[in-house]
Amino acid sequence: MNLPVLDTVASAALTAHPAPIALRDRIDAAIDRALVERRLIGAVILVAVDGETVYRRAAGLADRESDRLMREDAIFLLASVTKPIVATAAVKLAEQGRIDLDAPVTRYLPQFRPRLADGSEPVISLRQLLDHTSGLSYRFGEASGNDYDRFEVSDGFDQPGLSIEENLQRLSQTQLRFAPGQSFKYSISLDVLGHVMALATGTPLPKLIEELILAPLAMKDTGFAIADYKRTATPYTDGRAADGSHRPARMHEHTELPFYDGVLRYAPGRLENANSYPSGGAGMAGSAGDVLRLLETLRQGGGDLLRPESVAAMLRDRVPASAEGPDPGWGFGYGAAVLNDPLATHTPQSPGTFAWGGVYGHSWFVDPARKLSVVALTNTAIEGMNGEFTIDLRDAVYAGLDALIGP
Q1: What's the whole-model pTM score?
Q2: How far is 372 from 351, CA to CA, in rounded Å?
Q3: Going by fewer Cβ within 10 Å, which terminus of the chain is more open, N or C?
Q4: Angle (deg, nearest 10), helices 288-299 and 82-95
Q5: For all residues of the chain together, what is the average pLDDT?
Q6: What is the DSSP-derived secondary structure letter of residue 241?
Q7: DSSP-derived 3-state class of residue 49
Q8: What is the pLDDT of residues 147-168, one digit of tens each?
Q9: Which residues carry out catalysis?
């Protein structure tokens, strides 16, 4: 799929009409404010409306210490932006009859048998891995001293050199947080699913994702290895520096950030170690343009990649009625949150919007009702994922769109 491109600076079609200028100016202001206030080091922002990229900007620095400017084709560590890619591949395999989403995980992983608090061993299906109703968790999603800490379970973006077999062995010793299918908890389940996909097809996960998703969509900058280190954005944290300033700090191999009741543990060099397992939930790197290609494919009903009914299944809220979703007003589908009630979360986004992000500092959303896709990859965690910038950008996009095409 080739997406038409409109350069917001050079295109006469855009500069000739005041509404697109208003869209550009609002988004520019949101980005510039985050840079001036030193909440972000750099970012790549793409906005597509009805298949046309109406805004594109590489802003700030890819590497502060060397004054290397951000570029639009910069490569970022994607963290959970990996999830919609792997989820799409899983749905494709189900279409092809190569996996059964309702099959038990033990069909493919006989030794993976985590238990409930009462010692019972429930059945976990592949579908429950896909929609985060398996009862698993993330280490960073648990308070310090939990069993994920005790068994040193990797979240998929730390512990370079760790094998998937070892991590699943650790994970299988943890306690399920609830009976599978009874509630929702964001978890490491896509790492488990990614390994199942590899075993079921006899194809390593990186090669499988290349064949199913990356090659068909020409996502040449994306994979479980860095495509071009010269274009890679250096990651930073948005925490306070030792001198008490708000100056973001360069990440190192053992950077830790408090995150709600847990801790995010980073290893930015993880992909440089060939022995690091390919994390289906957090292990890829890629560019904003590649991410936009996938999101636009899903927004447009799957194109040549997936059947429309498969896309509809991906973007349906699957959180049990008795459970809470990731945030007020939001449920969860396959690889992304799904908006049910805009009023509950005070957002201008339409019902049916699907969205998510990544802990290296990314956010994205697709509003099918507005034919809108927005990708914001930054090199500053965690401001770029759920900080003030994400709200400012969202509101700027909708304010600009209202001027461009009407609410």
Answers
A1: 0.94
A2: 13
A3: C
A4: 40
A5: 93
A6: P
A7: strand
A8: 999 999 999 999 999 999 999 9
A9: 80
